[in-house]
Amino acid sequence: MPDNPPPPSGAATRAPALARLRQQVSDLHRELVRYRLVVWTAGNVSARVPEADLFVIKPSGVDYDRLTPDSMIVCDLAGAVVEGDLSPSSDTAAHAYVYRHMPQVGGVVHTHSTYACAWAARAEPVPCVLTAMADEFGAEIPIGPFALIGDDSIGRGIVDTLKGHRSPAVLMRSHGVFTIGKDARAAVKAAVMCEDVARTVHISRQLGEPQPIAREDVDRLYDRYQNVYGQQPAPSADRGA
């Protein structure tokens, strides 16, 4: 009887998951363009590889219309390139720091969207004055510290600001938006919503002072949106039998 074949290596077993994430991350960059959250080659999306200390991120300085699944870069949680022929995003160290210190995060997004950056330039949080903000963010959108690109200083600022905060978005002072999510798509959604409410609240302030929503109402709105809104899983057929 022939010997049993050896079990597939870890690299082989994660190959399908990596292929899916490369495709997803490539596709999600088009959403940043679609919602006008980026210009030129600025901004980036990354996604954690399930059950592996790896993440997928876009290459640095490549036009959005030239991004493909094959051009996506796989990095370890120290930010070192594991797979890919191009240099990874200049924000790779920040993404890696978030993944190392926030294990619940499955996706990270960075944008320079106009209205959110205007708040970041003023070092001012976006106050929670809209039900849509209460739904998605559960609080104000906070301001993170000023940090220079090149090491994990930005990542430290993101983690220090968002740990213990409901908001999946932070406005890094004089820089731009970073968002987190359970996966990359959720992080992109948070970036879209961040720009939308930053624009609306900015316009509101041209007309007068926006009125904050009471904390207890914010709590109720946030709980409903996070736990009730949308299509909920159907109960199991044998539940309660």
Automatic annotation (TrEMBL):
Its EC number is 5.1.3.4. It is an enzyme of class 5 (isomerase). Residues 23-202 form the Class II aldolase/adducin N-terminal domain. InterPro entries: Aldolase_class_II_sugar_metab, Aldolase_II/adducin_N, Aldolase_II/adducin_N_sf. It catalyses: L-ribulose 5-phosphate = D-xylulose 5-phosphate. Pfam families: Aldolase_II. Keywords: Metal-binding, Zinc. Its cofactor is Zn(2+). SUPFAM superfamilies: AraD/HMP-PK domain-like. Belongs to the aldolase class II family. AraD/FucA subfamily. This is L-ribulose-5-phosphate 4-epimerase. It comes from Actinacidiphila polyblastidii.
